[in-house]
Amino acid sequence: MLSNVLADALDGLVGEWARTEELAALGVQPNMRCLLYGKPGVGKTMLARYIGFKLGLPIVEARLDGLVSSFLGTTARNIGSLFDFADRYRCILFLDEFDAIAKARDDAQEVGEIKRVVNALLQCLDARGRRGFTLAATNHEQLLDTAVWRRFDGRIEIPLPDEEARKKLLARFLPPLLPGDAETKMLIWMTEGMSGADIETLISGGKRFLVMKEATGAAGSRRRGLLGALRRQATLSGQLFSKHRRDLLLASNEELAAALVDDAGLSQREAGLLVGISQSTVSRRRRETSVPNEG
Ligand SMILES: Nc1ncnc2c1ncn2[C@@H]1O[C@H](COP(=O)(O)OP(=O)(O)OP(=O)(O)O)[C@@H](O)[C@H]1O
Ligand SMILES: [Mg+2]
To answer: Which of 10, 37, 44, 46 to mutate to test the pocket of ligand 1 (most atoms within 8 A of CB)?
Structure first.
């Protein structure tokens, strides 16, 4: 679930990869090494697996943090074995948590050891060359060794989901709940700044709340149920929300309804219905707080 622009760009890339041989016949080589970077939980690992699925290729997946931390003394050898293994098959080699090597550079007692590890990695990347695709994912791209960074001809930033992507994510995680237009608008606005993983956490927490509410016989209107669920999440998992939105969720009904109109684009009627106050109360509240126009 990505923004349309990014999804199209990735489709293009995958399309090129699927036609490596045709391209090679024309003397063109697609990018064979691609780095996915972005904040935690934006879907990098999932995307790498999806690319494998689209190409119909198996993925050899290795988390470098495991490889580095558990066997610091033999890390270089482990990396060698990993690449040897991947090079034997037609597959994608996926190096997840790729910054582990860079991070180890600061932690390691022995600088020489890390240099050896980075060199081993560079050599392996070079040797793999045109043999197969290499994908790597990191959320600390700024920590990567510049020589390592340069090895990747494709560098794709996976951003936090924009409005369009949040809409898709909600449509994926909400069913069988089917929110109306106003609720969807509210959710899209509420989830600004969240990663895909945050949105998933939010919705599953909300669903748990709705089930518990029904179990205790306090179902009420489903619309109010959704807002109740959000409010509970704002209390229990406040870190998911931007501070402004969390404050609004925990503020009075009037204040929240006014924000839903002014910031989230709901009509006064929709905001009133969602929050459970009359349209005229919403309108009054907005008049009270609006800054009078000078002149
Ligand atoms: N863009 C997205 N589309 C669909 N699902 C997503 C997306 N982003 C996150 N998710 C959900 O969040 C979960 C975690 O995503 P994933 O592990 O791929 O993130 P990541 O970027 O690799 O995070 P990290 O940096 O912590 O490794 C996924 O399993 C999926 O359910
Ligand atoms: Mg990941």
So the answer is: 46
